[in-house]
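#struct-pred

JT: dropping the chains for the assembly here, can someone run the whole complex?
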Amino acid sequence: MSSSTSSKSQAQPLRPPLPTPTKIGILLFPGFQLLDICGPLDVLNLLSRLTPLHLTILAPTLAPVTTNTFLSTSIGSDFAQSVLPTHTFATAPDDLEVLIVPGGFGTRDEESVGELVRFLGEYAGLRWVLTVCTGSAILAKSGVLDGRRATSNKKAFAWVKAQNDKVDWVPKARWVVDGKIWTSSGIAAGLDMIYAWIAEVWGEETAQELADSGEYVRNKDPDDDQFAERWGTV
Amino acid sequence: MSSSTSSKSQAQPLRPPLPTPTKIGILLFPGFQLLDICGPLDVLNLLSRLTPLHLTILAPTLAPVTTNTFLSTSIGSDFAQSVLPTHTFATAPDDLEVLIVPGGFGTRDEESVGELVRFLGEYAGLRWVLTVCTGSAILAKSGVLDGRRATSNKKAFAWVKAQNDKVDWVPKARWVVDGKIWTSSGIAAGLDMIYAWIAEVWGEETAQELADSGEYVRNKDPDDDQFAERWGTV
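RK: done, full complex below.
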């Protein structure tokens, strides 16, 4: 963040700043991890009160998408939530600038993830792609991460790495930035990543104002990841 | 937490422990704050893989409930999410043990909140009520908080206090416990509260295992609230 701040404070940038994005999309699939999308989206909801933003919620069909998985139902739980998509892959606007990809146990379903992977591989023109948790495994399957640095959920790290060995998987990181692609560690790490991304795009002052409003204590250091040791990735 | 842990470790408790709850409800209303519900629910989703839990999502009707408010639309944003209820107030099961009440800008809508307030005032038998953010303002309007200690969102604290002066509002607290009623500070504070509540009910080991899986760094001290100073409540 400090290098970004200092470069932005220079009086004569080498090129004028690009316009901030307004068109943000998010992918849903059955068995998505709720906080993977609702953490970043809650912060962006607050940001949408400060600057005009448009959200597209993408899924294979317009049917409500559930967090439910057999991990809960198999022990007798009936405990899930459903979120409504706004567009299908077929009706997705072609001018999205940002796409957020969540993870969750549903990423293990080859059939439903296959559609996401094809969509990701074919969709062009995105200025940023942000993944939370095992969302990076979906992105890895699409080939978009080949030769790039990325991280993922640390408890599931071995499984994620096995999805594509052409990715430079970073075993200890709260989040990783490689060009236009930001990947975060598991679940709650998506909150730290989205604040860092907002700081990068809209400035640190805006990011901190949102975090103060959300009463969230940020981890601003992408290398500060206590869950790498906890789950044995290092 | 330490007093709870030590009392549970005594060989001869004064009375046998009560059964852990299984029936959990959550209230929705237009303009709810997304993370207020999705923070606690994401943790409970993980818990529902360890112990059988049943979720009821309550709203006035079965129509999808949106996070949208004029704070976003008035500046040209189109950025919201909709969650599906499972029951209406009229069809609510009568054996809920736990109810979670979110906050959000929708708590300012007297008409929609009026229905919630009546429901809260009439629903009996709950073993726990947990509010996040300005959800405590709804609870305060129902009279349930009269004479009790409670906290709320710190940026909106003056407005919350004005809803009911018979509540002992705590100006600096991440969360407050008064008997069966748990109230948290704003938005992200609901995560720290739900982990503390799970530690109280299912034990600290379970709570920490869930936090490690969710890669969430807990604030375990209910008095550690840096946003009280930030928003001038103390």
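JT: nice. Chain A touches chain B through 53 residues (CB under 8 Å). Residues 1-9 of chain A have pLDDT under 50 and may be disordered.
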